[in-house]
Amino acid sequence: MSGSVLSMARPAPTSNGCGSNAALLAKQLSITSNGGAKNTVTPAIVPPKQPQLAAKVIQQSQIVCFDVDSTVICEEGIDELAEYCGKGTEVARVTKEAMGGAMTFQDALKIRLNIIRPSQQQVVDFIRERPSTLSKNVKRFVAQLKADGKQVYLISGGFDCLIAPVATELGIPLSHVYANKMLFDYQGAYDSFDITQPTSRSGGKAEAVAMIKQQHAADALITMLGDGATDLEAVPPANYFIGFGGNVVRPEVYRRAQYYVTDFEQLMGDQ
């Protein structure tokens, strides 16, 4: 992890939480039935999966790793940055193609950044003008994890300069952030991104977990939390995965996850 993260204080968001989780779930969840037709599933039909056991998994884990976009925060950082820079529609098209398997994660990242080409000043302005919104109860949950002596990490396919203010707000050291890095030239113009970061490529979150694992006792239990398939695929080397659907529910993740919650409070047990 390079040390050139843009260290900025995170501005206070204009609202508390991500709005109505129920409305987001109703709007965004679509699960394919056995017949192949897609049915919109209301929140009442999409319950958490084994939240009590998931809370026990957290209690037993020494290391807890979080995805960032749509998990720790409500937004998808690169999409928000693209919109801010006036490139939202173009980037959304590439994102859709990438999700359809038309290109590798790294190729999709390269194409999207080459479309946006944000200057260093634009990134600074974006962070100041559009601060990320923390997901409901995540700050309390992270505080509890830390109080219980657990190591907390953020692992993201997003960018460290956008994530650093969030990590600081949560009291997570920047050395515990695994994310991609934008590179700028001496005038602050966008140049490229660091392809040596594990999260810049497919399978990168599993690679990041493996790197974290090497820094701790061999028998330390690691749990990964996130909304996406790349988070689910971090097991192994992570020992457990808990799906999170508080902002958006990915049907494939919901189907495959043994444990699934829609509010971090569900993982806090009786505390």
Automatic annotation (TrEMBL):
UniProt record, GO biological process: L-serine biosynthetic process
Gene3D superfamilies xref list: HAD superfamily/HAD-like, Phosphoserine phosphatase, domain 2
InterPro entries: HAD-like_SerB, HAD-like_sf, HAD_sf, PSP
GO CC list: cytoplasm
Cofactor(s) annotated in UniProt: Mg(2+)
EC number from the UniProt entry: 3.1.3.3
Stored CDD domains: HAD_PSP_eu
Pathway, per record: Amino-acid biosynthesis; L-serine biosynthesis; L-serine from 3-phospho-D-glycerate: step 3/3
Active site: 67, 69
Pfam families (UniProt xref): HAD
GO molecular function, one term: magnesium ion binding
Keywords, alphabetical: Amino-acid biosynthesis, Hydrolase, Magnesium, Metal-binding, Serine biosynthesis
PANTHER family named in the record: PHOSPHOSERINE PHOSPHATASE
Family from the record: Belongs to the HAD-like hydrolase superfamily. SerB family.
Protein name per Swiss-Prot or TrEMBL: Phosphoserine phosphatase
Upper lineage: Eukaryota, Metazoa, Ecdysozoa, Arthropoda, Hexapoda
